[in-house]
Amino acid sequence: MEFRLIDGKGKRFTFPVNPEEVTISRQKGFDTTTILSRGEFDFPQGNKIKEISFSSFFPKEYDEAFCKGGKKNLPNPQTAMNKLNDFLASKTPLRFIITETAVNVPVFVSSHQSIFRGGEPGDVYFDITLRTWSELKVAKIGGSKGAATNKKPRTDMKEKNKTYTVKPGDSLSKIAKLELGDSFKWNQIYKLNQKVIGNNPNAIKPGQKLVLS
């Protein structure tokens, strides 16, 4: 069993140590109304957003007794902690998966708390809470033909590809340096755009629109 978060680019973040327990909170919404002298009455509404919370830690040293993914995949605790902070700040939903279970849902990270313990230098403990996400559907009144239902455009969980329009004097290595920070990534750009560029990576032309990621 593995606990994973997957971002809009399909990049997988696997928690190296499984939590001992996971809490999934489910509630039904109620609209409470007071009817004159008869008191309060509850009218059931839709389900509230589910919350998923658990605690674990990022170990500094690999231990096959409890670590997942192999020694080479063990993240640096500080880097992993910062990754959770990035997820917390993200405005794009993630997908949360617990393998070998039915849990596979889009979520946002709603809270993240890091804990450092004096007796365990290097390890970073954490508490995290996820809130399930679903698209909003809005009913819209149509024209003379009567009422019609119109869904709000679906929020795409995938991030849009970054593109670049070739300018005079450009080369793939120059574009890679300016846009990706590493001129050696020119080959990455070429592989993504080989159909546009052709067999010669040096034959790019002004006006061509290249996908960078």
From TrEMBL:
Coiled coil: none annotated. SUPFAM superfamilies: LysM domain. Residues 162-212 form the LysM domain. InterPro entries: Bact_Kbp (IPR052196), LysM (IPR018392), LysM_dom_sf (IPR036779). It holds the Pfam family LysM. It comes from the Bacteria. This is LysM domain-containing protein. It comes from Paenibacillus uliginis N3/975. The lineage of its organism: Bacteria, Bacillati, Bacillota, Bacilli, Bacillales.
